[in-house]
Specification:
The protein has a five-stranded parallel beta sheet, with helices on both faces. It has a four-stranded antiparallel beta sheet with strand order 6-7-8-9, covered by helices on one side. A three-stranded antiparallel beta sheet has the order 10-12-11. By secondary structure, it is an alpha/beta fold. It folds into two domains: 3-121, Response regulator (Rossmann fold, 3-Layer(aba) Sandwich), CATH 3.40.50; 130-232, Orthogonal Bundle (Arc Repressor Mutant, subunit A). The chain contains nine helices and twelve strands. Helix 3 (62-69) crosses helix 6. The protein has helices at residues 10-22, 34-43, 62-69, 86-95, 107-121, 156-167, 175-183, 187-205, 231-250; strands at residues 3-6, 28-31, 48-52, 77-81, 99-102, 130-133, 136-139, 144-146, 151-153, 172-174, 213-218, 222-227.
């Protein structure tokens, strides 16, 4: 079993590596930055990813973003940290982290939870094939965006971006996250292509106030996919109200 461990702490890496080796899993590779880890995931995904974050869970975790837009829900992610509070633990679980170990490192627990995460995720390679928000659905098998009145075929990269946004509705996805997760590059290299793809995606999917979904730009940070009430629905509500009042008056 191959393990990818993201940590900047030499002692943490040695202790965890030795613990897995003692349990018969000698292949533990260290990474010190998320982009380096993501690039390795694209070439040769491990069986388990362990991420050290000492004080809190970051909602902009790039590894989870990569896993979402590359449809690798079979890849288990475990996070460890000494000073997490209950809010960070809750946020991590909601974001899709499989296992969490907090407090003083208990190596036996890390190994046991790691094995459990791998077993639980095994066989989930094609678990999720569609995502629906309101009246809009993404179909992974055909890379299509489907609504009540249209069907749009997307390129592989466009679909990866759309899937990432649909997986995290209402959440800010930074430009850095998109560059790392979708392109596997630094933002200063992928930035121009990223902006072009966002522009094309908005146009293709008609993500505006009339569709019930809008892709909002958060100035200097990134983008957020939001569900909104389409105008025709608001009009329908306002026309129904007077009729209801008239019915009550007659009765």
């Amino acid at each position: 079993m191959q393990i990818a461990l993201l940590t900047r702490n030499d002692s943490t890496f040695r202790r965890i590596k030795n613990a897995f080796e003692a349990d018969g899993m000698p292949d533990c590779v260290r990474y010190t930055d998320e982009l380096g880890l993501i690039r390795s995931l694209e070439r040769s995904p491990p069986d388990l990813v362990i991420i050290e974050s000492e004080t809190e869970f970051s909602t902009s975790n790039l590894v989870l973003a990569w896993r979402a837009c590359h449809f690798r829900q079979d890849l288990p992610v475990m996070m460890i940290g000494q000073w997490w509070d209950s809010v960070s633990m809750t946020n991590a679980l909601h974001a899709g982290v499989d296992e969490i170990v907090v407090g003083e490192f208990r190596l036996e627990e890390i190994v046991a939870r790691g094995r459990h995460a791998v077993e639980r995720r095994r066989g989930e390679r094609t678990a999720q094939s569609i995502i629906t928000l309101g009246s809009s659905t993404l179909y992974r098998a055909t890379r299509e965006f489907v609504t009540l009145d249209k069907r749009v075929r997307l390129t592989a990269r466009e679909f990866s971006i759309a899937w990432l946004f649909f997986s995290h509705p209402g959440a800010l996805i930074t430009r850095k996250e998109l560059a790392h997760a979708v392109w596997g590059k630094e933002l200063d290299i992928a930035g121009r292509s990223l902006e072009q793809h966002i522009y094309k995606l908005r146009a293709k999917l008609e993500l505006d106030e009339h569709s019930g979904l809008t892709l909002r730009t958060v100035y200097s940070l990134g983008y957020m996919l939001e569900q909104i009430e389409a105008p025709h629905r608001r009009d329908l509500c306002t026309t129904r109200a007077p009729r209801a009042q008239m019915a009550e008056a007659v009765s």
